[in-house]
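seq:
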Amino acid sequence: MALIQGGVFWLSLAVVAVTIVGVAVGRFPLLRMNRATIALTGAALLILLGAIPLEEAYAALDLDTLTLLFAMMILNANLRRAGFFHLVGRWVVQRAHSPRQLLAFIILSSGVLSAVFLNDTIVLTFTPLVLEICRTLKQRPIPYLIALVTAANIGSAGTITGNPQNMIIGVASGMPFLRFTGYLGPVALMGLVLIWIVLLGLYRRELAVDRFDGVPPPSVQAEPRLLRKSLVATGLMVLAFLAGMPIPQAALGAAALLLISRRVDPERVFAEVDWSLLVFFAGLFIVTGSLETLGVSGQLFALMQPVAERGIVSLSLVAVVLSNLISNVPAVLLFRPFVPHFPDPTQAWLTLAMATTFAGNLTLLGSVANLIVAEIARRRGVEMGFGEYLRAGVPITLLSLALGIAWLLWVL
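struct:
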């Protein structure tokens, strides 16, 4: 942008860099700030510096993605209040007769549900359930917690609604829901099997018990009417996805259906919406949008284009590195303006979706879902250490990435 020169230009770039680093770390020393406040403050500073005019900041907001994320939060809040996720936990306990079966059912339920209802929502709801199940069955919870979160991350890669970065990719690419899932759903399912195999190898002694005996299923308080209504809304949303309706529109319709109620106080539903996540996304949209108004997009594209031209392997490796340096959502947002100009945009979008999601399993800091599980477990007296997680995260990530790359090379 011609008006942004000299010191203001470099100061604006410094604000962008500091904001992205703060988002990656999750906080600043001595300040009580989280990712949402860091992103919003960075966006505000860039607007005040003139790096991006207020009108262009409004235009940088991806309202389709924000609408989809908000609508899914409404849907998840109703399912949670209806007791749906606790019913799934009861189903797991009733059918798991050995540690290996319990591990498999946790991986399956976490992975499949994350593909529909957002991975962060699943780990937030299921972590207390897994801890309670392990306490009842007298099992060490660490293998099952690692299974829960790695399956949630890998399973979420299979659909556009599985995680925030996929939502961005789905909206930006305009790819139909069924086509996206047709490409990435199979490799996500294969990744779930891979998790089970790796964890069986790492924790073979702890998972060697032949059978659980006489384990009572946990009691569940469900709201049948709200449950039926929530499942109907979810089913209609999925049918709309499959019919080709725009994804934000279908999700918003399901959310609106659930907000028509005589019994549920809307304030109780809105209280469960993660407003900070919406603020975080809005701030990041403005921060990354400022790179275009600052005139540095061309240089970034020049750096990224050779990577894309080398194909799936090189783009996957760059996506993995960026995801672990600055987190997966900022990584996708940095690529978003340039992917439509790549030689094969569809290949690039799908590669980014797979690689940035699978990369989240590498370390305990690799994804928000990992941190949610670790924090809930810590509050309940279970310490999931960085080193122990790494012991499972590294092989799961490397093997799943190799599987994902091989799969995309075959189908694309």
